[in-house]
Amino acid sequence: MEPADRDQEPANRPAEPQPSQRRFGALSRRGALLGMSAVAGVAAVDVGGFAYAGGWLGFSGPATLTPPRFADRFEQVFGHHDGFRRNHAKGLSATGSFASNGAGAAVSRATVFRAGNVPLIGRFSLGGGLPDQSDKPDTVRGFGLVFQVPNGQQWRTAMVNFPVFTDRTPEGFYERLLASKPVPATGKPDPQKMAAFLERHPETVAALKVIKQTPPSVGFADSAFHGLNAFYFTNSAGATVPVRWSAVAQQAAAPASSGKDYLFDDLIRAVTQRPLTWKLILTIGEPGDPTSDATKPWPQSRKSIDAGTITIDAVQTEQAGNARDINFDPTVLPDGIAMSDDPLLAARSAVYARSFTRRAEEPKSPSEVNVGQVRS
Q: Is residue 352 a known part of a binding site?
């Protein structure tokens, strides 16, 4: 654990491994769980970019893709902002619960799918490394959740409002991040660099077409959020199936307001008026459905299960002790859910930790989004 946050964490919280202690071979479950807090099992590591996956991290030369290089790339594109996440820097903490209806137990033995309620800690965010960026309707929106299961296990997920991911591999994501860096003269990416990237990555071109077919909703409250990656679910009988999941909004949003932080302001007002709910929908894959490529959607005809209701009943300005310091690492999974062969899954953990290592040692600045400044 890094000293900047040590006074905010329980004394018996396991230490976050230092960079010199990390080895990037197969990502072990123990490694994924390092950093868990003794209180509610909350880990203080960061949501950022991508790292080890299927051997793409190595030590063969100066151009090798590593967690520090990924974190560096975010800083090169968005600038350096002390104390903030390198990606999804602008955000708002949330709390609530998940009411399982028991239907998910048909495909997973995970305790979270037994009928009953479990508490949630969440975070709404905007993609990118600018903590003070102006809200825009087409900026990717994030919804991270930690399901706090009674038996001490956890299920964490980092969802976005895109139906598919833009990149198939960590290398592709890294290349696109570089190609999308704004040119000072225009404030937009260099069209030649982006065109060259897209020519090399037809899978991204196809994914962008799918994304454009699903225009963004008015706000956070009426957004659907998607886990994107495939996972393997195993039930109590030992049967295993591939699954993707989504959180489908159960309320319509009011007309969007105006202002730099309008998306977050509208979310704060909405939660003040009533709890917000999303149905957790599990989509069951069939033989031949891609589990290793998050750019490809599964057919809409696939069977789905309504597993229960996610409720957010409060939001909070980010500060020590809430979602500011949580790692929404999608590889932290309870028994009954396992990683698939998607290279992006294992890829996300190590740079999350690298991002935390950096920001935890930096001075903290106030969050751009302040719940107390929004009038209902």
A: yes
